[in-house]
Each structure stands twice: as C-alpha cells, then as structure tokens.
Specification:
The complex is a heterodimer of chains A (177) and B (328). By secondary structure, chain A is mainly alpha-helical. Chain A contains 10 helices and no strands. Chain A has helices spanning 2-6, 9-12, 22-41, 44-62, 72-93, 112-120, 125-136, 141-148, 152-167, 170-176. The radius of gyration of chain A is 18 Å and the shape is globular. By secondary structure, chain B is an alpha+beta fold. Chain B contains 9 helices and 6 strands, in the order ααβββαβαααααββα. Chain B has helices spanning 4-19, 86-95, 161-179, 202-217, 223-232, 248-257, 262-270, 274-294, 318-324; strands spanning 132-135, 141-144, 150-157, 183-190, 303-306, 309-310. In chain B, β1 (132-135) and β2 form a beta hairpin. In chain B, α4 packs antiparallel against α5 (223-232), α4 crosses α8 (274-294) and α6 (248-257) packs antiparallel against α7. The chains are: A mainly alpha (177), B alpha+beta (328).
C-alpha cells in the first residue's frame, strides 16, 4: 500500500499531466540530491555520478514529462539503491582497513563532526543510509523502509545497530572522552 | 557520547556541516540518445540555499541561467536501436503464428497487494541476507534471500507485453518479498515469441543475457532483478511485430547500465549463450505446458506457478495471500 501511495506512477504514465519537466525537476533537485548522495557515500565525485545516474533513471521511468506526483521519493529511492549497489561493487575491490591511516585530531582542537564523519565511513552502507534518511532528511521510518525495500522493523534494527556501532566506535569514543 | 540523544544531535550537526560542502550538482541534459528528438536544454538553479534538514518537494526557485557543459559529469546513453533488422521484419511478419496465446485478462491495474501488512509473524527484526540470483540446471533463475518458505515459478517471454505489465503491477511487491526473505522466485523464460521480434530471436537472446548476468553477477544483489526490470520496461522492451528490437550489444550495454560486470557485458555482446538459452527455453515451455495442463488450459505467459499449478494473479491479493499461508 505504501508503494502505491508513494509511486502512483503506473496510473499516471502516458498522461500529459500538469507535472514538471525533468529539466525543471533536475534543476531544482540537483543540489539537494547531490548533498544527499554525498552524505551517503562521502565522496563528491561519486555523489555527482550517483545523481546523474538517478536523473537517467527518472528519465527512463517517466520520460521528459514527470507525473504530478513528484518523483522526489522515487529519485531518492533510486539514488539509495544506486549507492548500495555501487558500494557492493566497490567492496569487492577494496580491502576494509581496521585503522584509519589519518592523524587523530589534537585533543585541544576537538572536531566532533569530523570524528563522526570518519566513524560513519566504517558503517555498512545500509546502516549509513538509514542514518542519513533519518537524521538528515528527517524521513519517517515507513518512508525509509520504502526507500530501502525492507520492513519498518528492519529500519529500526539497522538504525539501532548503527547507533550502537557509533557509540562504541574506538576512535570516536577515545577522542571524545 | 553515551546517550542516543547526544549521538543524534551530533549526527544532525555532522550531516548539516558536510552537506554544506556540496554547493553544486550535475545537470540533466536530455537523454543524448541518437534517436532522441527533443534534447531539452537544461538550466540548473544556482546553488540552492539549504533550508533546513528536509528539502521541499518542489522549491519555488525558478530555473536560472544555463551553465557551460561540465566535462566531468558522466554520460549514459540509451542503447542504440538495432538498425539492420528491418529486412527481418518482413520475414517475421509473414511467418508469424504464435503457438501460444497470451492471457487476455490484464492484471489489476492499480492498488496492488500490500506486502508489508501480511509479513508473517516471527520474521522479527532480523535482517535477511541480500538476495542472490542463481541458475539451476533446468535454466531457471532463482532469486532469493536465504531460504524462504514460499517458492513461485514465474514463466515469461521477454517480448511479451503482458509480462511487462505484470512486472509493472507486481514487480515491486515481488522484489520486496524477495528482499524480506519471504519469497523465492524461479524465473523461467520461454522464447515462443521470437517470431514476433524484429531480429527473429529476441526472446532467446534476452534470456541468454539474463542467464549470463545471473551466472556472473548473480551474487551482486539487485543486479539481476534490475536487469530483468529494465528489459520489461517500456523504455527498452521491443514491441511485437515492430521493426526494432535490441541487439546483443544493446543488451550488453543495458546490462552494464544496471550494474552488470564488464565480463558479463562482453559475454552478452558475443552472443555465445544463445544456443544454450534456446534449449533451456524449450524445456521451460514443456514445463509451462505441464503446469497449464493441470488447470486444463493452454500454456501462456505470464504464468505464476505454485507447486506446479497456475496461480490466478488477476486477483489483487494473490501474492499477499500466498505469503500469508502457513508455511512448511
């Protein structure tokens, strides 16, 4: 039911509606979506690639004329999925490292967001995605579940695992003491 | 940093701080497809001011000045349509005689089944393993996360428009049930609509491409299902008895666009698996015929089979009902 409510696309397909064009949509959503993508992946170039892929997916799904029901949710969902898929591809090529090879911040210059940002890189992609959707976009769990194609309970468990991991992240706890 | 509240506050601060480092984003410049007639000139709003944690659906900011092309942004091309297939069309039209009729009844157009409402108790908060696609000796491509209690066979032909409709109506719910670890789908492809395709063997070649992706990238969650969905998307699925379909190179690039590996793309482009795919598709047609016979009717696609008998997928709650039944 959630999916039907959020993406009533089949009903609108082919109808020349009062909706925006993809051009206007992309212009308005480019920066917000790139911010969202950057918070997910932590890499500016990769974020832009993800957004570009998302626009293409929206084009393939809707064409140049979008339905009235704004496909922001669709774009976000597509973007999250593209991020998760590319993370899986990357994980095959990258070796996880136990220690981050950067200098820890000096104690008198404590940069909590910086430490948090680094701690976030050690989270599994799905957990990180839940945090971004919840604490950056302020999405309710049912919308997050829709974006991640899982149940609400899964969102809750992903979030609590993520928070637990952050709370006990070695670098993070030691530095912030 | 002990309470969740402090943690959440820091997360919001961190996200806000790092989001602000993004002041620009890529533009949409039209599909850039060879056959695209209207490449819309694009304008990108200058750096949209961040207006709090959640972005409005449609900011009122009007589109502003066009910007110069950005060389760094990636280009994706809609696969070019095979042009050399016109000659085949005449032949195909002449001999066209589909051995199997489509089901004429359309699946419910709207208001698909709600999967979430019927999640079986006991599934709990556990996160199922990521869904993977595997190929069986009979050519069935099974997509499942873990070991679900419900296994359905789905018979389709890549050229069948009603299969595309079925995908649009049920694809999301099916995928969600798969991801939730409640459902395994055995995709079985038949190719009896080959004769209605421009190239004369599109159904077989599309199946060969799906087999290749499942075998080589089946462990990469979502790749197979995305490729499957893309093939049935009206943007890609060839129209029966039209002058165009997708070449092997087109299939390869479409697979690449949804995350298939370079190796899989190369194999698809080579067309190496087509003969094998035809053999397996013929076996699938025999299996489909047996399924249809249990209901006393002629085989057709799409057909969903549960325990060897067809499921009436025209009933809106068909999947939810199957999922909610007692298992094992």
């Amino acid at each position: 039911m959630i999916g039907v409510t959020l993406f009533p696309v089949d009903a609108d397909e082919g109808v020349v509606s009062e909706g925006p064009t993809l051009a206007a949509f992309a212009a308005a959503q480019s920066v917000p979506l790139t911010r969202f993508a950057y918070l997910l992946c932590g890499d500016h170039q990769r974020a832009e690639d993800l957004v570009q892929d998302t626009f293409l997916a929206v084009y393939r799904r809707f064409g140049e004329l979008l339905p009235v029901a704004a496909p922001v949710a669709y774009a976000r969902k597509t973007l999250v999925n593209a991020y998760l898929a590319s993370s899986r591809r990357r994980s095959a090529a990258e070796l996880p490292i136990a220690e981050i090879p950067e200098e820890p911040a000096p104690p008198d210059d404590l940069d909590l967001p910086g430490l948090m940002w680094r701690a976030l890189t050690r989270l599994p992609p799905r957990q990180r995605a839940v945090l971004v959707l919840r604490y950056y976009l302020d999405q309710p769990d049912e919308v997050i579940a829709e974006a991640l194609d899982c149940r609400r309970g899964t969102v809750r468990s992903l979030a609590s695992r993520a928070l637990a991991a952050l709370r006990t992240d070695p670098t993070f706890t030691e530095e912030s003491r | 940093m002990t309470t969740d509240l402090e943690l959440e506050r820091l997360l919001r601060e961190t996200f806000g701080t790092y989001a602000d480092t993004v002041t620009d984003g890529p533009r949409w410049r039209g599909a850039e497809a060879e056959h695209s007639t209207a490449a819309t000139p694009l304008a990108l709003a200058e750096t949209t001011p961040r207006s709090g944690a959640s972005e409005p659906l449609f900011p009122d900011s009007p589109m502003s000045v066009p910007r110069p092309p950005d060389a760094a942004s990636r280009r994706w091309r809609i696969p070019a349509i095979a042009a050399a297939s016109v000659a085949v069309l005449a032949l195909a039209t002449a001999v066209l005689a589909p051995r199997v009729a489509h089901w004429t009844a359309h699946p419910a157009a709207e208001g698909g089944p709600s999967m979430t409402a019927d999640a079986p108790a006991g599934a709990g908060d556990s996160v199922p393993p990521d869904a993977a696609a595997t190929v069986g000796p009979d050519g069935a491509i099974t997509v499942a996360a873990g070991d679900p209690g419900l296994v359905l066979d789905l018979y389709v032909d890549a050229l069948c428009p009603i299969c595309g409709e079925f995908e649009r109506t049920n694809g999301e719910a099916i995928e969600r049930a798969i991801d939730d670890g409640q459902l395994a789908v055995r995709y079985r492809f038949v190719d009896f609509l080959n004769a209605a395709s421009a190239s004369g063997d599109y159904s077989t070649r599309a199946y060969a491409a799906l087999l290749t992706v499942a075998r080589q990238d089946g462990g990469e969650p979502g790749v197979f299902l995305r490729f499957h969905a893309a093939l049935f998307d009206p943007a890609h699925q060839p129209v029966e008895q039209s002058a165009h379909d997708l070449s092997n190179a087109d299939l390869a690039s479409l697979a690449g666009s949804v995350g298939a590996s370079a190796a899989a793309q190369a194999d698809i482009a080579s067309g190496a698996g087509v003969a094998e795919a035809h053999t397996l598709a013929s076996a699938a047609l025999d299996a489909l015929t047996a399924v249809a016979e249990t209901a006393g009717r002629a085989p057709g696609v799409p057909t969903v089979a549960f325990a060897g008998t067809p499921v009436n997928t025209n009933s809106p709650g068909w999947l939810a009902g199957l999922l909610a039944r007692p298992t094992r």
